[in-house]
Design a protein that fits this description.
alpha/beta; 3-stranded antiparallel sheet; 11 strands; 39% helix; 22% strand
Length: 335
């Protein structure tokens, strides 16, 4: 047996207080009666219609009502049935750009931290979907395989940082190919990739990778983060400052929106340009993925469904209360 609302049991401290209250009130009443009536033979005659034992029984019944009511509120459960739980959803891989330019502060607090916060909000919207994480810069790797454990995914998400990938650059094509490798080709599930980046591709052919994704039945939703005019790239390390070219001019990271749009269009996905950090992941998930893609069965498991038993202490409390109500304390004892 266990209690669903076990914190309610803390109210049981009321029971000993109630007992002390009744014991104290009965003693105080007797003391006052003896003070009022000093003649020993007069007191039994004044209380001839009162059955003192029944007063104690009624008090005990009220204490029992309170105790049973608290137990009912705590929702005791015992006995269970095995219940089959089926999860239906979509396989989603989120690919996040970890290049140094993602530390630019044109999006508060910076592009990478804002992207991580938006992805955390996405986790709260998932409805039985599996989700995986790919980190990329000049190279890419699977940071978290597809999972239904959103807590574990969030741990891997928190660990994303530019120094996680030592190869500089933004290899979008490699990110797409790595994301495709995260899916199980044997499973006939709906698959989607959410690609978050702030720069152009520096290696490979992203459109060829997009065509490969389309052939595999994967939709890619691309998100370009940052201002269209570009932003300076902060340098890592204690010295700070911004990246400059050989002439001493600031190097700006620029967004290749046309390529990102073509990637999304090729696969049947959608493109979103995020300037303020709002990536519209809610719209992408609810409209583009949940409504635009077929949900398939991802996992089947069994769980214990405990039987509710709160009705028994509740019925007992009602019965005891009725007994207490019918029990009279003013009847005259028979000789």
């Amino acid at each position: 047996m266990h209690f669903e609302n076990i914190q309610i049991l803390i109210l049981l401290w009321i029971v000993p207080l109630l007992i002390l209250f009744y014991v104290g009130s009965f003693k105080s009443r007797d003391r006052l009666l003896r003070t009022f009536c000093s003649e020993p033979t007069l007191l039994p005659r004044l209380l001839c219609g009162v059955r003192r034992k029944r007063q104690g029984i009624k008090a005990a019944l009220l204490v029992a009502v309170v105790t049973l009511s608290i137990l009912a509120l705590a929702r005791p459960r015992w006995g269970f049935q095995w219940e089959e739980v089926k999860r239906r959803g979509v396989d989603i891989v989120v690919a996040v750009d970890l290049s140094q330019s993602m530390m630019a502060s044109d999006v508060d607090p910076n592009r990478l931290e804002r992207a991580k916060r938006e992805i955390q909000d996405l986790l709260t919207m998932l409805q039985g979907d599996r989700i995986g994480l790919v980190a990329f810069a000049g190279s890419s790797f699977i940071q978290c395989p597809l999972t239904l454990d959103y807590g574990a995914f969030n741990i891997f998400l928190d660990g994303l940082a530019p120094d996680l990938i030592p190869v500089p650059g933004t290899a979008v094509a490699r990110a797409i190919e790595t994301s495709l490798s995260a899916f199980d080709p044997k499973l006939r599930t709906s698959k989607a990739v959410i690609l978050i980046t702030d720069g152009e591709d520096h290696a490979g052919d992203p459109l060829a990778a997009a065509r490969k994704a389309k052939k595999a039945g994967v939709k890619i939703f691309t998100i370009g983060i940052g201002k269209r005019a570009g932003a300076p790239i902060p340098l890592a390390g204690p010295g700070g400052g911004f990246k400059k070219d050989r002439s001493g001019d600031l190097v700006l990271t620029r967004l290749d929106e046309e390529t990102l749009k073509k990637i999304a269009l090729t696969t049947g996905g959608a493109y979103v340009h995020s300037v303020t950090g709002d990536m519209d992941l809610q719209s992408i998930y609810l409209k583009g993925i949940r409504e635009g893609m077929e949900q398939t069965e991802l996992a089947t498991s069994r769980k214990k469904r405990w039987m509710e038993r709160f009705q028994w202490p509740l019925l007992a409390a009602v019965f005891v209360l009725l007994v207490e109500g019918f029990l009279r304390e003013g009847e005259r004892e028979q000789a």
